[in-house]
Amino acid sequence: MTPGIGIDLVSITRIERIYRRYPRRFLNKLFSDPEKENFKQRNGSPASLAARFAAKEAVLKALGCGIGPAALHEVEIIAPRGHQPRVRLHGAALEIARRQKITTVALSMTHEPPFACAAAVVSAALPGIVEQPSGKNNF
Length: 139
Hints:
Elements: E1 4-11, H1 12-21, H2 23-30, H3 33-41, H4 46-62, E2 75-78, E3 86-89, H5 91-99, E4 104-112, E5 115-123
């Protein structure tokens, strides 16, 4: 499998405007409960929210499907403060990754107003090179 690369750049102001207009609907449609909790812990930072939105899009682009075959809420971004972000896939996004034998998703997120950006790289690991988490679909 050739590694897949995805990148996304979003306007923090645009994401903030959508969130302010439809806060509950925006969060419930796009984010998991742990992601929503993480957002609250970050005091509702629009830049943080925009970076996670960009990360979800970047992962779907790296999977080669974009939005459509898989939904943004099927890509969960786990980003504890001070640690490298991780990705957990669900639903159609997970099935697409399994079909392509993807075992690794590397993710980087950043924000500097007025933009937030994320880049994702997906690949199939060579046996013995990457240790797989046991029993979870964490990448």
